[in-house]
Amino acid sequence: MKLTNLKAVLxxxxxxxxxxxxxxTRGRSTDGGxxxxxxxxxVVVHHTAGSTGASSSSxxxxxxxxxxxxxxxxLYVSRTGECWxxxxxxxxxxxxxxxxxxxxxxxxxxxxxxxxxIECGSNGLGEPYTEAAQECLTLTILALMDAYSIPLEHVRxxxxxxxxxxxxxxxxxxxxxxxxxxxxxxxxxxxxxxLGDDTAPxxxxxxxxxxYAEQGDSAWSLMRRCGLDPAAIGAKGRDEWYxxxxxxxxxxxxxxx
Length: 257
What we know:
- There is one protein chain.
- By secondary structure, the protein is an alpha/beta fold.
- It has 2 domains: 6-193, 3-Layer(aba) Sandwich (Lysozyme-like); 211-254, no CATH class.
- Helix content is 28%, strand content 11%.
- It has helices spanning 6-12, 56-66, 131-148, 158-161, 184-193, 219-225, 230-244, and strands spanning 17-19, 42-47, 75-77, 83-85, 115-120, 155-157, 211-212, 253-254.
- A 6-stranded mixed beta sheet has the order 1-4-3-5-2-6. It has a two-stranded antiparallel ribbon with strand order 7-8.
- A hairpin with a 5-residue loop joins strand 3 (75-77) and strand 4.
- Helix 1 packs across helix 3 (131-148).
- The radius of gyration is 18 Å and the shape is globular.
- It starts with 5 loop residues before the first helix and ends with a strand.
């Protein structure tokens, strides 16, 4: 399948979008650009490594047309805070690597068939990410997580997939003020703080039964199933629960704090 609903998904998440001609049918030629059932199950973040302050149109043109590995990614986050939709199918963005944190879900060198690739406009050598770009990236990832049931621990960087070979994303941002390769634990922690929902329903009553993660569960839904109100317990309580259940996969036993 191809993610032909990307525009609707991002619109629902409050993301400002730009559609690139032909995105609905674009995907890598290696496997027809099709995601298999149950995928994508990861989001991988990159930087473009282009010129400082490069225009969005020039970077997008390279990624969808002139690169010899086009399409380079599914989405492009511009310096001015728009998400350009480039490809609905799998892309060529990740290359060789491995995912020891994926619990055997992704084979070595096979992340392209599992992930939505996001390229952020930056030279990666010290160019700061604008506030607009950081907010766009945040909203984009939150929308993708929600629409495709992608767990927080499956939001990864190119550097995490290919350590020693890749440094991206890198550069000053609110979760990496000093610059350099992003600390993705800080980034995922920031996303965690943005997952709050003040309109959440009352939590289910506690149960003595063991609770297991199910496909599509989020950290917040699992906390509610444990009888916790994630909004009421506050950031400290959520952090304590999250520390006990950092890697949540279908079938994983959930511990009560």
